[in-house]
Amino acid sequence: MVDYPLPGDYEGLYAPAKDLILLDVRLSPVQRRCVLAHEISHAKHRDLGCRCDRWTERRADMEASALLIDPLEYAFAESVYGQNVHGIAVELGVMPWVVGAYREWLHDHGTLVIQ
User: Tens digit of pLDDT for each residue in 6-27?
Assistant: First the structure.
């Protein structure tokens, strides 16, 4: 993994030919953590090219959310913030898109039951 000034609105990318993740130097610590988790998914699957098809990006987002969000912490945050994605994201130390991806994952894989 290398920090590098990426062009345009790129926050990170996985270069499969070099098996290397590049993260933009301008990222905040929270952005950096989330983008790194997303790019780790691309590296795990050896995805080719930047901004792959929407299914590949969705998979990377959902896998990143599973790496970054603890189910019990999510349940607590949702009990406090309800449907407020931004509040939940701040509570969990992730970007709002990670919360959205985690909610998609929950939808696809059943609900979280806390006793």
Answer: 999 999 999 999 999 999 999 9
